[in-house]
Write a structure and sequence with these properties.
The chain is an alpha/beta fold. It has two domains: 211 residues, P-loop containing nucleotide triphosphate hydrolases (Rossmann fold); 155 residues, P-loop containing nucleotide triphosphate hydrolases (Rossmann fold, 3-Layer(aba) Sandwich). Helices cover 41% and strands 17% of the residues. The strands form two sheets. The chain has a seven-stranded parallel β-sheet with strand order 3-4-2-5-6-1-7, sandwiched between helices. Strands 10-11-9-12-13-8-14 form a seven-stranded parallel β-sheet, with helices on both faces. It binds adenosine monophosphate. The site of adenosine monophosphate has 14 residues, from helix 3.
Length: 381
């Protein structure tokens, strides 16, 4: 299978090539032609299957032909359950948009941050990625109107059907025009999802993708956060606190930096210890044990120390600084991933490191979704 015979236009194919994808994943081969044909879709697929690009690419293609008419009347709406997913989906749109002759203005909105900048950024947006609560707030403020939506995507539909979203989702459905293309993606097809598909989808194309073998696709979610060097500390503390991370391994490139990061974490009430070559063997063993037992939340390590030591698999690894060698990067992120659940590996990438990060990704053979943090307020962190 190749991207050339899925019905995608020349500019889209060239954008895909520039973005580093060489072959379509199975869900992409199945979903893209059906979506381009205007069909409703029910995709049963896990995160990691490539489902995001399977709707992003055809939506971008459909919009190459359309011309935007009225400001604030969005044409495509992608509903997601969490802020992280909103950012992630937004960055996949950005990845391809970046390489298109007519980029389609896309915005990701979510709660937990100030609404005012989002209201301003809504100007001339055509594709909106949103969590339900924030979307309704924006509608209430007349920053966005849903009556012209032509394509609706529900990502992780199983989660969106949780009771916590029920009343919000009901209100959103009432605001959408009845005539539209519906694309539903879910990890499972539970009873609730089944009810929703009956209600929403017209003669859908059903696509089911089996979970991939672990060896083919390690269950690690990779993110890069673009951040100024001087905001790395606040961003690290923000991530740990806002995502309530309880067991984190942070990597720095020097002993000096490891100690400095630990001091700052402690000053902000986060229990942390350093693990590096200047620590005695006893102190290193203790530090690891404290992380395992939960007596500390964060262990800040250098590569040198991490090599010879048996570090257990952890839910989250954060690269405060990138390692020089791609091999070390792979070694670092290999510290995360738990049986059955995806591990999370985050890299804080300063502008000066971006080129090096691209080299690492190329060597690794996997592209990492980048998140912009420029507009993120880190006051108090
Ligand atoms: P998703 O399931 O949409 O979260 O995608 C999982 C990961 O696979 C993301 O890091 C994507 O950038 C990557 N990905 C998706 N499609 C392809 C492809 N055709 N080739 C290479 N990487 C891909």
């Amino acid at each position: 299978m190749s991207f050339t015979n899925l019905g995608l236009s020349g500019p889209l194919q060239s954008a895909i090539k520039k973005s580093g994808y060489t072959e379509p994943y199975p869900i992409q081969s199945a979903a893209i032609p059906a979506i381009l044909a205007g069909k409703d879709i029910l995709g049963i697929a896990q995160t990691g299957s490539g489902k995001t690009a399977s709707f992003v690419l055809p939506i971008l293609q459909q919009f190459q032909k359309k011309y935007f008419t009225k400001n604030r009347f969005i044409k495509a709406l992608i509903l997601v359950p969490t802020r992280e997913l909103a950012v992630q989906v937004g960055s996949v749109f950005a990845l391809f948009n970046h390489n298109l002759p007519r980029p389609i203005k896309t915005l990701a909105v979510y709660g937990g941050v100030s609404i005012n900048p989002q209201m301003i950024q809504m100007q001339h947006v055509e594709i909106l990625v949103a969590t339900p609560g924030r979307l309704l707030d924006l509608v209430a403020n007349k920053a966005v109107h849903l009556s012209a939506v032509e394509t609706l995507v529900l990502d992780e539909a199983d989660k969106m059907l949780n009771l916590e979203f029920k009343s919000e989702m009901d209100r959103i459905f009432k605001l959408l025009p009845p005539q539209r293309q519906n694309l539903l993606f879910s990890a499972t097809l539970g009873k609730d999802v089944h009810t929703l598909t009956e209600m929403l989808l017209r003669d859908p194309v059903k696509i089911e993708i089996e979970a991939q073998e672990e060896s083919v696709m390690p269950p690690i979610e990779l993110f890069g956060y673009r951040v100024n060097e001087d905001r790395k500390g606040p961003l690290l503390r923000y991530l740990i606190k806002s995502q309530n991370m309880q067991q984190v391994l942070v990597f720095t490139s020097s002993v000096f930096r490891a100690d400095a990061v630990v001091e700052k974490l402690k000053a902000h009430g986060i229990a942390a210890l350093a693990l590096h070559s200047k620590k005695s063997q006893g102190a290193r063993t203790d530090a690891l044990r404290y992380l395992k037992t939960g007596e500390i939340r964060v262990l800040v390590a250098t590569d040198l120390a991490s090599r010879g030591i048996d570090i257990p698999l952890l839910p989250v690894v954060i690269n405060y600084e990138l390692p020089r060698s791609p091999k070390d990067f792979i070694h670092r992120i290999g510290r995360t991933g738990r049986a059955g659940a995806a591990g999370l590996a985050i890299s804080l990438v300063a502008e000066e490191e971006e080129q090096h990060f691209r080299v690492i990704q190329k060597k690794m053979g996997k592209w990492v979704d980048m998140v912009d943090t420029e507009n993120l307020s880190l006051k108090g962190f």
